[in-house]
Amino acid sequence: MFFKxxxxxxxxxxxxxxxxxxxxxxxVVLVSISLLVAGGLLLFSLNKYFNVEYMEYQWLEFLWTxxxxxxxxxxxxxxxxxxxxxxEIMKSVFSVKVIAHQWYWSYEYPFITKNSTYDSFMKQTNDxxxxxxxxxxxxxxxxxxxxxxxxxMVTSSDVLHSWTVPVLGxxxxxxxxxxxxxxxxxxxxxxxxxxxxEICGVNHSFMPIxxxxxxNSELMSFKDL
Length: 225
Ligand SMILES: [Cu+2]
Prior knowledge:
Blueprint: H1 14-46, H2 58-87, E1 94-101, E2 104-108, E3 117-120, E4 142-145, E5 150-156, E6 161-165, E7 170-174, E8 180-184, E9 190-196, E10 209-214, H3 216-220
Parallel strand pairs: 1-5, 4-10
Antiparallel strand pairs: 1-2, 2-3, 5-8, 6-7, 6-9, 9-10
Helix pairs in contact: 1-2
This protein binds copper (II) ion.
The site of copper (II) ion has 7 residues, from loops.
Keywords: Copper, Electron transport, Magnesium, Membrane, Metal-binding, Mitochondrion, Mitochondrion inner membrane, Respiratory chain, Translocase, Transmembrane, Transmembrane helix, Transport
Domain Cytochrome oxidase subunit II copper A binding: 91-225
Protein name: Cytochrome c oxidase subunit 2
């Protein structure tokens, strides 16, 4: 995990991969158009000469009206496709329930063990072990499994929160009295971080998310949380 980097973190789910690719494509279009327009502006503002053919140039007017419309359409379709993929829950192997509180997260694994709810608080700076991240590491981790389709159900016990893990491509609002779901298919194991992304009170900045994606061998030996 790198801080102060310009681009996204390396994606760890197919959804985030799609979002990153779309971002890259959109950026190519955006930069090309910006350069073209900036170049044109410079050229025409610094040049004393003016081509009279440009007055009432119907074909040019038609072109720069229709062309941007097509460019927008070409960008809208992959965007919609990615958007609908995000909502798609493929056959999930198991479910995790994420419950937001002021100001910590609880995780529930209803189909693995009984009474499997546990709380995840931010680690205080004094309690940090070497190599752990200040304001990001938690007392307990959320567990996911490598290449196992997981249904993440997000809800809240008090106010609005948002369960956000950038590498997984998930930013799901936690609403009291409502369960939102997201699909999660991690591509490799490791430890990944996220933060609450909906202002929820004074300790909003101090309820981080730490997701541990376990490898398949660890899944086989998985008995209790
Ligand atoms: Cu919050």
